[in-house]
């Protein structure tokens, strides 16, 4: 009796264990088997293979994007370093050229003795011309040794130059309160003025060229010429009459009076090319009413214009002026700039 009772008890225990096992099995059966990537394990091999290939392509794209991003970052870093190096090299070359010009280059002086005769408006324009003149000299292949004479630190012109020109104190030029008459031998000086009778034939390294720093709205003639005669120095004018002719215009306006930066641009180009035919258009605006004689078919004496490859690479502002002669200043009779 006890044996049968124990057997029944064992059977019930086995039934309970089997029930638990079935319950667990039922739960496992209800769950759909999936891979670690969330793919149904009951899918066909073809579907699984396609899914694996898709995962590989996705990983490859992610890796490629990461590599491209890294390459772009490295490339940008190299470009920045190269650009920074280029700027440093250009600045170093510019400083070297200006330093060499201050030792052995031709000398050009802006005579500022007439600054007290000008209004504030005229002084502002003169300060702007000095800035452009210095900028042209910095970009030149063969710069000049520049002087600003009779330039007082307590003058209105000095205040205007500092106000209009950033870094004016660092300009690589000589600024002095002395007169050019006390700095240079009279026999070495040529005062450039539009009223001179003799035309300038050449630009040499031994001559000191003087430009009259004067912006005159009242159109007082021969001011710089009279000052040169009083000082007893040689005078010369740009050879505009020898290489250019008057061009008809609506206002019948023709003028050979240029700003000091325009005269200086002509001297720079001539020194680099040796051609007045190339130099004059670089500084004489179309609005002045003059054009090269060779462009009109008129034969004139003097040096034939020649093409210089230096202008194509080293002086982009000059090339731009030569290629676009119609970009000259507007034609108006005031203010008149005497040089």
UniProtKB/TrEMBL annotation:
GO terms under cellular component: nucleoplasm
The reaction(s) this protein catalyses: guanosine(9) in tRNA + S-adenosyl-L-methionine = N(1)-methylguanosine(9) in tRNA + S-adenosyl-L-homocysteine + H(+)
Biased composition range(s): Basic and acidic residues: 56-70
Enzyme Commission number(s): 2.1.1.221
UniProt GO BP: tRNA N1-guanine methylation
Species assigned in the record: Clupea harengus
Record protein name field: tRNA methyltransferase 10 homolog B
Domain of life according to the entry: Eukaryota
């Amino acid at each position: 009796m006890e044996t049968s009772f124990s057997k029944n008890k064992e059977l019930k225990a086995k039934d309970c264990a089997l029930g638990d096992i079935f319950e667990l099995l039922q739960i496992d059966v209800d769950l759909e088997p999936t891979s670690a990537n969330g793919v149904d394990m009951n899918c066909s091999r073809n579907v699984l293979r396609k899914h694996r290939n898709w995962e590989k392509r996705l990983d490859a794209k992610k890796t490629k994007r990461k590599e491209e991003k890294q390459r772009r970052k490295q490339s940008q870093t190299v470009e920045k370093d190269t650009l920074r190096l280029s700027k440093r090299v250009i600045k170093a070359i510019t400083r070297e050229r200006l330093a060499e010009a201050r030792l052995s280059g031709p000398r050009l002086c802006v005579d500022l003795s007439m600054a007290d005769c000008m209004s504030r408006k005229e002084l502002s324009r003169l300060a702007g011309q000095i800035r452009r003149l210095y900028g042209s000299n910095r970009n030149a292949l063969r710069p000049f040794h520049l002087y600003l004479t009779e330039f007082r630190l307590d003058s209105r012109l000095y205040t205007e130059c500092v106000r209009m020109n950033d870094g004016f104190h660092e300009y690589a030029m000589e600024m002095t309160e002395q007169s050019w008459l006390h700095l240079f031998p009279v026999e070495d000086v040529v005062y450039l003025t539009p009223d001179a009778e003799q035309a300038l034939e050449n630009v040499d390294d031994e001559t000191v060229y003087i430009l009259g720093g004067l912006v005159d709205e009242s159109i007082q003639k021969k001011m710089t010429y009279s000052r040169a005669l009083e000082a007893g120095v040689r005078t010369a004018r740009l050879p505009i009459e020898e290489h250019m002719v008057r061009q008809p215009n609506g206002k019948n306006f023709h003028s050979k009076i240029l700003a000091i930066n325009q005269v200086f641009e002509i001297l720079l180009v001539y020194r680099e090319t040796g051609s007045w035919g190339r130099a004059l258009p670089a500084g004489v605006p179309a609005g002045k009413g003059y054009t090269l004689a060779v462009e009109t078919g008129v034969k004139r004496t003097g040096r034939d214009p020649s093409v210089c490859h230096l202008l194509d690479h080293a002086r982009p502002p000059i090339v731009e002026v030569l290629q676009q002669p119609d970009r000259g200043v507007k034609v108006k009779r005031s203010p008149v700039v005497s040089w």
